[in-house]
Amino acid sequence: MAGVSVQAKGGGRRATDSEVNMVPMIDLLISCICFLMVTAVWSQMARINANAQVPGPPQPQEENTKVEVEKMLTVEMKQDDKFVLIWKSGATVHNTSEVSRKGVEVGEGSSRSVRFPDLAVEIEKQWKEYGYHKNDDDTKQDQAIIFVDNRVSFSDVVAVIDAIYQTKRTFKGAQLSSFNVTFSAR
User: Fold this and answer.
1) Using CA atoms, how far apart are residues 88 and 73, in angstroms rounded to an integer?
2) Cβ distance 143 to 178 under 8 Å?
3) How far apart are alpha carbons 158 and 103 in whole angstroms?
4) What angle is formed at CA 87 by the lines to CA 86 and CA 92, rounded to 5 degrees?
5) Do the beta carbons of residue 116 and residue 155 sit within 8 Å?
6) Beta-carbon count within 10 A of 9 CB
7) Is 100 inside a domain boundary?
8) Spatial distance between the Cα atoms of 118 and 61, rounded to a whole number of angstroms
9) pLDDT tens readout for residues 38-87
10) Is the pTM of the predicted complex or chain greater than 0.90?
11) Residue 129 is part of which domain span?
12) Quick count: other Cβ atoms within 10 Å of Cβ 87?
């Protein structure tokens, strides 16, 4: 069974008959082929399309149109007693405010969770002033980034995300969250 018989030649008293097992060699070959196929797929996925977002117009004779950087909300959870809300576009800071970090417990038993209603009210108020995507036919959402410290509990992070998602806008007659939330930890 999957073996090769190798007969030794020579003048010994006894004939040496040994069998080489082929199963480990076939297993190794299949493993190598799988490894090469997987790495070939990943190396192709890691390529960067260099002409995807070339700055400037394609023809030099055309006039440059300046693209406005959108405002973004940053919610910092680095301190234990307050949240810091920062609206900025690129390196330009438009507004900075602080909200006290008072959590309200909701529910009972194992379904108990924390909410931050003061944060939700302040974010909605500021979005009405600084938000970028408010039109009914605008498909994009404003960006919100949460900066947290490693010490922050997961339930507090979820409560902040819920507070950000409470700000709603109308999109084609339906209520939609005003923000797309991303997360950054230190």
Assistant:
1) 7
2) no
3) 12
4) 105
5) no
6) 7
7) yes
8) 52
9) 877 665 555 555 554 555 556 666 666 666 777 888 888 888 888 888 88
10) no
11) 72-185
12) 21
